[in-house]
Amino acid sequence: MRDTAVSYMTGVPILQRLLIFSRNSTLLPSPVFRSANRVIIGLAAALSWVFFSVAPLHAAPLSITVVLSENAGPYLEFSNALRESLLKRNVALAVTDDLSKPVTNSGLIIGVGMKAAAAVASSNAPAILNVLIPKHGYEGLLHDFPQRVNSKSFSAIYLDQPAERQIRLIRAILPDKRRIGVLFDSYPHEELAQLRQRATQHGLHLREQRIASETQLHALLQDVLDDSDVLLAVPDAAVYNNSTIRNILLTTYRSGNPMIGFSPGYVKAGALAAVFSTPKQIAVQAALAIQQFGETRTLPAAQFSRMFEVAVNEQVARSLGLNIKSAEELHQEISEIAGDEP
After folding, report:
1. DSSP string spanning 108-158?
2. 3-class SS at 342?
3. What is the Cα–Cα distance from 77 to 98, expressed in whole angstroms?
């Protein structure tokens, strides 16, 4: 299925503002994306170099160890992008996927993915930045390792998207729809409440349904679809996983209701659209956090990725008889409020 995508960065202070050279700029991700994405990310890396280069010429390099959950896939993509962003900076970067000995003498540890994040959080590492983990995963780390709570040297850049960004996508792509179906099992109540609040603020209604077991899934999914205009998938592995996603997509499609996914893989599989952040984009933001740590020995507060992309499955839209905006137009509409903070 053909899909298109576009990305942008919003609400970024100081150095990040320099990276937004035009409010109307668009960034196009790979693999079907244009070269503009590489140009903008390259510009971000180049501008960040200016800030790194103001350090004293003879200052000792900042030692960073990147701990990967696996030496493959998005973890490796993040690592390579970060290395490129920090090239020629005053840092010493090491990468490992040995979770049994994740801590070296580094001044800063970066845990990539939940396995790595849990391994380094349990260690005696004094400073940790977690990436490619969901918000509820980070909150779980704080619960499991209370010594990390309120630490200015323990933080994260979330992989998932803020509720406001998801609701804006639905409003932009389906302006006439008002009822949003949500299936969940272990999805955090706080995040569900945030989603509900944002939906209400935009004049939308959330039709929530908890799935206690996989045997209930088909019947309860049909109930939700009968009472909804669109199904919003949330990153709840108890509901959305390899054994269920095909049937969910087929049932949703046959009902005539579109699904909004949370990754480009869902769009390729048959979801109408998704908003998401790539490992390369998160690497650019991580480089900014490293810059702050190098200057202050503190990390920014845990936050969502400020760069994101929109992907649209045009074939699904045509099949459902939907006349929707392009990925570029949707992205612009989501981002149009100046100074937006997710």
Report:
1. EEEEESHHHHHHHHTTT-S-EEEEEE-HHHHHHHHHH-GGGTT-TTEEEEE
2. coil
3. 17
Rounded to whole angstroms, the Cα distance separating 156 from 304 reads: 8
Tell whether the torsion through CA atoms of 18, 21, 26 and 29 is positive or negative.
Answer: negative
Query: Counting every residue, how long is the chain?
Result: 342
Residues 6+ apart with CB under 8 A from 160: 134, 135, 235, 262, 304
Contacts of 206 (CB under 8 A, 6+ apart): 180, 182, 195, 196, 199, 200
Q: What is the pTM of this model?
A: 0.81
CA dihedral 315, 316, 317, 320 (to 10 degrees): 130
Specify the pLDDT at position 175.
Answer: 95
Q: From residue 48, how far is each of 12, 60, 109, 217, 251 by CA, in Å?
A: 13, 19, 20, 48, 47
Could you tell me the maximum CA-CA distance found in the chain, to the nearest angstrom? 67
Average pLDDT of every residue of the chain? 85
From CA 79, how far away is CA 88, in angstroms rounded? 16
Neighbour tally for 201: CB within 10 Å: 11
Q: Is 282 helix (H, G, I), strand (E, B) or coil?
A: helix
Least confident of 28-42, 130-144, 169-183, 306-320: 28-42
Q: Give the chain's domains with CATH numbers.
A: 3-160+277-308 (3.40.50.2300), 163-275+311-334 (3.40.50.2300)
The closest alpha carbon to 310, from 293, 332, 294, belongs to: 332
2 contacts 313 by C-beta, under 8 angstroms: yes
